[in-house]
Structures are given as structure tokens and as C-alpha cells.
Amino acid sequence: MPAKRIIACLDVKGGRVVKGVRFEGHVDAGDPIALARYYRDEGADEIVIYDITASAERRTLDYQWLNQLARQLDIPLCVAGGIRTRDQALTCLNNGADKVSINSPALERPDFINELAKIAGSQCVVVGVDSRAHEGEWRVHQYTGSAETSRQTPRRTLDWIVEAQQRGAGEIVLNCMDSDGVREGYDIVQLQAARGLLSIPLIASGGAGVAQHFAQVFAKADVSGALAAGALHSGALRIADIKHAVATAGIEVRPC
Amino acid sequence: MTIAVVKLGVGNTASVMFALERLGADALLTEDARQIGEAERVILPGVGAASFAMQRVDALGLRDTLRRFPRPLLGICLGQQLLFERSEEGDARGLALLPGTVTQMYASTAAPAPHMGWSRLLELAPSPLLDSVSQGAYVYFVHSFVCPLGPETLAEADYNGRFAAVVGRDNVYGCQFHPERSGATGARILANFLALPC
After folding, report:
1. Which residues have C-beta within 8 Å of that of residue A78, sequence separation ≥ 6?
2. For this structure, is A11 an active site residue?
3. Are A251 and A216 in contact (CB under 8 A)?
4. Choosing among A39, A47, A98, which should be mutated to test the B contact, i.e. which has the most B CBs within 10 A?
5. What is the CATH number of the domain that holds B114?
6. Is A136:A182 a contact under the CB 8 Å cutoff?
């Protein structure tokens, strides 16, 4: 099995990283490129750049900026935010992204997953899913970039991830909204349920607070990777500490 | 010196170009048979389906150019798979620079496919391409098909079984992983390729 991936996610709004960045010293607090390079040096296995308001504002990422970042990065780069046409996805890939992650646009038009997988290959297509428990069932949410636009859809999370896989997604990022930002650990129960249904990689998102949470989610839900944003940016967590905790639990990680 | 990076349509050729740029190499992204044939070295990248890529190779008249290329040639990811005789993916006929068939990886809930992530290089053979690369070094893979082990295998990797992670014979080399996205180890392998004598 490959090493479990520790993924640093940069939520970007208006060209700056948001979610309470409090870095000191050599890293410009909110500059996504500086921060991506910093996490690369710290030992992150992958960088995800997520333009959180793009989809709700009916636009996509700034390609020139993406190009500048990709030029400097020598680890995998996944981008997300408002990618809803084949040309937009291909332009992201042509500007150096390795994978594009689609979320709300895939819900608007599920055939988009098939189309992208066919032209770019499944390995380039990540489907992001925002999920929240509602009356005893996990439901998919859409346009979650801001509180005003976020809404629940009729789709059941576990049905949707299986459908996304069948349509050609190469990876699922499951963002468990109930645990997101709370920093009390990943939603192990939901991730276990999702993992049991998939034969493509599953990435855990939402809830990381301490290094031990990563060891737990790998040991209990056997996800391929775990994503962290806020806890990393605040300086509360460092990649080296995460990897140390995971390795100590006997789980393979790439050394920093 | 000019390195021709073969443009096969869809694929993350941008990251390969950026990696070469970081190494200070003069690279040209091209689909032109003459430019490719005259280049000092050639990189054949590519993601996507083997059958689609080989249709492009044939449509661009590149099959013979690549087969006869006398200087260092490096296939990356799908590019390595295309070096073999054939691929189960769309029953594609490869460049046949190396013997054997590329086969589909077995996928299951326990072992998801694609194999996407950082895995170790094992059983390294002495080769200038792997100069200063250590046994067990991690590199980044994304693939659903695997190349067979054989005398031309320079390093193996393990995912649901061993497969050829690095291959090489005469002037022809291949990496199943993405050196352009494999941190310092990947940069070292690309630098080694650029330093191969022509």
C-alpha cells in the first residue's frame, strides 16, 4: 500500500488564504503560494487549493495564479472551485494542476464527471462531497462556500459517492461538515461507511485538531489520505508531528 | 541543448515542463516529428488512455520517430507504458521498444485503484538514471495499469503485487511514477536523465 497521504488544504478567498492564518516569521500569513511552498518543505504529500467562493459566484480559479504556483511546486497539486466546464478543467490541467476537484458543478450536472473522466482520465477527476447528518441520514450539501449560499440537497451521501465512482471519479474527498472546524477528530463512522462502498481512494476531510486524529482515521477508517486546513494554518499542528503520530501507530507515511 | 517533450493532447505536460524549467533545462513542448527526431533528448509524458495516446502517436506520424530515436528517451507514467509491446487498455499496440504487455491493476475495496500516492522504490538496479537515489525512496504514482517486470526493470514498486516502477534499456528509459511531482527524489531522477550522455 502507498504511504498514507497528509494533505494540506488552502482555502482561498480573493487570492488570500482564509481560516485564521496566524503564521510567524518567513511565511507571509495569507499568501497561498508562500504557504503551499512552506507545506511542501514541511513534508505535505499533496496540496489542495480550494477557491471557496468561486462556485457560488459562478466563476473559477485564476489560471495565471495557478500557473505561478504549479511552476514552483514539485508535489501533487489538486485545485477546486467553480470548475464546471470541460474547458475550465483542461485549462487547470494545462496550467499545472494534476487533479481537478469538482463538487457543486457535479451535483448540478452529474454527467460532467463522465465527460471529464473520459477526456482527462479518472486519475485527474476528484469529486468533493460536503456531507452533513440530517434526521439520521447523511445528506449532500451544495454551494457551501458561504453560509448564504449553502443548502442541503435531496441526495444521500452514500448514494452519491457510489454514483460518482461509477461515473468515473478517481478519488472522493468526503468533507464531514458536522466535524469541520470543530477539531475534535474526523467523522470516523461516516468515513468507515463511505470507505466500505468505494474501490477508489477516499480522502477524509473535516475535524483534524491534533496529530492523533490522523492516526485514528487511518487506523479505523482506512482512508488513503487525510486533509487538514485550519489546524495547520493556525500553527496548532505541524506536518512533522502528524507524521510522527501516524508512524508511531505503525502506519506507513512518507518521512518528512 | 533542447529537450523535446512530446505533446500528446490531453495530459499534465505542464508539470513536466515546469520541472524541467526548475532544473534550468531548455525544453520544447511539441508534436512535430522533425523537432522530436532532432532533439537532444525526448520525454514522452502523458496521462489518459493508452489507446487514445497511441492513436495520437500514429496520427502525428511519431511511431517511427520515437522507435528510432537514438538518444536518451524517457517515458513518464503512461509514457512508460507506451514503451512496451501492447497494453490491455483499449488493446493498444505500443512502441515495442521493450518486451511485454501492460496489464490492468486489480482493484478492490481493500486496494483501491488507481494506485494514487507515494510508494517506495525497491530492488534498485545500478543505473545512471538512479544515481544517488536510495533504496526505499518515496515517489508519487497515479496509475491503473502496470508494466511487467523483466530484465529491463531498474526499480520495482509494490501495490497489490510488484511491478516495474523504473525501466531502462540502451537509450530508452521509463518511470511509472511522476518524477515531476515526486519532490527531491523526482528532481534527482530528472536531473540524472538530463545528464545521460547523448
Report:
1. A46, A47, A48, A49, A97, A98, A99, A100, A101, A126
2. yes
3. no
4. A98
5. 3.40.50.880
6. no
| Mean pLDDT calculated for residue range A216-235 | 92
Q: Give the separation between CA B6 and CA B51, rounded to whole angstroms.
A: 16
* Domain enclosing residue B156, as ranges: 3-195
pLDDT attached to residue B10: 64
CA B189 to chain A, closest CA, distance in angstroms equals 13
Q: Does A98 touch chain B (CB under 8 A)?
A: yes
Mean pLDDT over A132-153 rounds to: 87
**Interval B166-185: pLDDT, tens:** 999 999 999 999 999 999 99
Question: Are the C-beta atoms of B8 and B172 separated by less than 8 Å?
Answer: no
Looking at the 3D structure of chain B, how many domains does it have?
1
Task: Evaluate whether B193 touches B129 at the Cβ level (below 8 Å).
Answer: yes
Query: B81-101 pLDDT, tens per residue?
Result: 999 999 998 888 999 999 999
Q: Which of B82, B64, B70, B83 is nearest to B40 (CA)?
A: B70
**Which one is catalytic: B88, B152, B180, B198?**
B180
> Is-contact A40 A72, C-beta < 8 A?
no
**Measured between alpha carbons, how far is residue B70 from residues A246, A256, B26, B67, B141 in Å?**
47, 39, 19, 9, 28
Answer whether residue A20 shows pLDDT above 50: no
Cα–Cα distance, A35 to A30 (Å, whole number): 7
For the record, the C-alpha cell of A90 comes out as 483542461
Q: Is the pLDDT of residue A25 over 80?
A: no
Task: Name the packing angle between helices A32-42 and A63-72 (round to 10°).
Answer: 30
The answer to whether the CB of B74 falls within 8 A of the CB of B43 is yes
SS3 A243: helix
Active site residue B38: no
Count the residues in chain B. Answer: 198
> What is the pLDDT, as a whole number, of residue A52?
79
